[in-house]
Design goal:
Elements lengths: L2 E5 L8 H14 L4 E5 L5 H5 L11 H5 L5 H4 L1 E2 L6 E3 L8 H5 L8 H6 L8 E5 L6 H9 L2 E7 L4 H18 L5 E8 L6 H14 L12 H5 L15 H17 L1
The structure holds adenosine-5'-diphosphate and magnesium ion (MG).
The site of adenosine-5'-diphosphate (ADP) has 17 residues, from helix 1 and helix 10.
């Protein structure tokens, strides 16, 4: 059975894209058939997978608008053994163009139907907003992974996201779950980070992934080479943390 996860947090810079790329690469290296969907017009997931977003003929935009089948949009990541539904700036217009279309919230879900049985895991990297693109991710997902930095305002943004998830449950996707909260860019020497982390565990208990992603320069460097950290410095703390996260997720899905 395929596991379909939306990686979402309306805050930018919390590690969604880094998580998408590195988790996809880690699942793939463990032999899992993995698809990564870029839902952000910035196309960072696409570039970070070694694919030049500027020369793409078709992107997720064309699949959402129903202009191309998802199989025609799908490519193989240049680095890493996972498949990719790429995105670029074209996607910025999709929001407006989709407003007039029927079932605009579930277009990705419908598009993925034809390929979902090809995979063990489908990960969707959502943009930093609670917009129609993120809604498409949440409607297509079985569960949500929420990357967050352990800082003071982290919890505040969380309630907006949780409310959106409730709304999606009520209207489109009754079985949508919160798969887990992922602590990213973690610095154990930072007292505040530790306090927020403790708070998260008190509030959300086992919804917090055991694996913590440390702040690690290799994770930030790798996209510049168009590769997941695994192919940049396999033994770095960052690459190892995402391998551990993949293991945790595979165990939970088993
Ligand atoms: P988002 O997709 O939520 O906007 P990104 O994954 O793009 O966040 O991360 C924001 C920035 O932080 C990027 O420059 C990225 O390389 C860097 N970054 C992400 N995770 C880490 C980490 N664990 N350690 C160091 N830098 C990181
Ligand atoms: Mg991003």
């Amino acid at each position: 059975m395929v596991k379909i996860l939306a990686i979402a947090n309306q805050k930018g810079g919390v590690g969604k894209t880094t998580t998408g790329i590195n988790l996809a690469a880690s699942l793939a290296i463990a032999g899992k058939r993995t698809l990564l969907v870029d839902l952000d017009p910035q196309g960072n997931t696409t570039m970070g997978s070694g694919v030049d977003k500027r020369i793409l003929r078709y992107t997720v935009y064309h699949a959402l608008l129903g202009e191309q089948s998802i199989t025609d949009v799908r490519i193989t990541a240049t680095a890493g053994k996972y498949d990719l539904i790429p995105a670029n700036q074209d996607l910025a217009g999709a929001e407006v163009e989709m407003v007039s279309l029927a079932q605009r919230e579930t277009r990705l879900k419908v598009a993925l139907q034809t390929v979902k049985d090809d995979y063990d895991f489908i990960l969707m990297d959502c943009p930093p907003a609670l917009n129609l693109l993120t809604l498409n991710g949440l409607c297509a997902a079985q569960a949500v992974m929420i990357p967050m930095q352990c800082e003071y305002f982290a919890l505040e943004g969380l309630s907006d996201l949780v409310n959106t998830i409730k709304r999606v449950r009520a209207n489109f996707n009754p079985t949508l779950k919160i798969e887990g909260l992922l602590r990213t860019m973690f610095d154990p020497r930072n007292v505040l980070a530790k306090q927020v982390s403790d708070q998260l565990q008190q509030h959300f208990g086992d919804k917090v992934y055991r694996t913590v992603i440390p702040r690690n320069i290799r994770l930030a460097e790798a996209p510049g080479f168009g590769v997941p950290a695994l192919f940049h410095d396999k033994f770095s703390k960052g690459a190892q943390a995402y391998l551990a996260l993949a293991k945790e997720i595979m165990e939970a899905a088993a």
